[in-house]
Amino acid sequence: MGVALLSGHRSKDPHTQVGACIVNDKNKIVGAGYNGLPAGCDDDEFPWSKEGGFLETKYAFVCHAELNAILNNIGMDLHGCKIYTALFPCNECAKAIVQSGISEVVYLSNKYEHTDSAKASRRMLETAGIKCREVETQIETITLSYRKEDV
Q1: What tens digit of pLDDT does each residue of 104-141 get?
Q2: Helix (H) or strand (E) run with residue 19 in it
Q3: Residue 84 near residue 135, CB atoms below 8 Å
Q4: For a Cys staple, 52 with which of 56, 81, 111, 124, CB 3.0–4.6 Å?
Q5: Exposed, middle or buried by CB within 10 Å (0-12, 13-18, 19+), for 80?
Q6: Based on the number of CB atoms within 10 Å of its own CB, is 91 exposed (0-12), middle (13-18) or buried (19 or more)?
Q7: DSSP class of residue 106?
Q8: What is the distance between the alpha carbons of residues 47 and 42, in angstroms, rounded to a whole number?
Q9: What separation in angstroms does the CA of 142 have from each of 27, 130, 138, 139?
């Protein structure tokens, strides 16, 4: 989950930074991603707003972290892999998760569980037999240092 959260910090989204990390059955990282624009699209040329007409918001353009992690995988079959993600996946990401063969979703927050998107996602994941669980941890924060003295 730490790698998923760290990946999210690469996002240019000023409102929501979500990351995802896929591991194989040996817990080796095989893919990671964050919510952002598709490759080749300049972050400064597209909107990041949450409100307005569809084409004036980020929603028409941003790829979610889970989809990016799947697309950014190291070229292996993802059947039986586990995906760690900061937020419970939306219905669009759930489709990609099901299609990729991932067998478990571990998430930190399900703050949108009341939305139709999250309900549709949960239904698809459960129907496909994909295990979903909220991460359990006593860790509240992790601090990274770039000071040479700390290495």
Answers
A1: 999 999 999 999 999 999 999 999 999 999 998 888 88
A2: strand 19-23
A3: yes
A4: 56
A5: exposed
A6: middle
A7: E
A8: 10
A9: 20, 29, 11, 8
Judging by beta carbons within 10 Å of its beta carbon (0-12, 13-18, 19+), is residue 149 exposed, middle or buried?
A: exposed
Alpha helices (H) in 20-149, listed in sequence order: 65-71, 91-100, 116-127
Residues 81 and 24 sit within 8 Å (Cβ to Cβ): yes
Nearest Cα residue to 57 out of 108, 16, 92 = 16
Catalytic residue among 66, 136, 140, 149: 66
37 phi and psi, to 5 degrees? -75, 155
The count of other CB atoms within 10 Å of the CB of residue 85 is 29
Tell me how long the chain is. 151
DSSP 131: E
Active site residue 45: no
Q: How far apart are CA 41 and CA 44, in angstroms?
A: 9
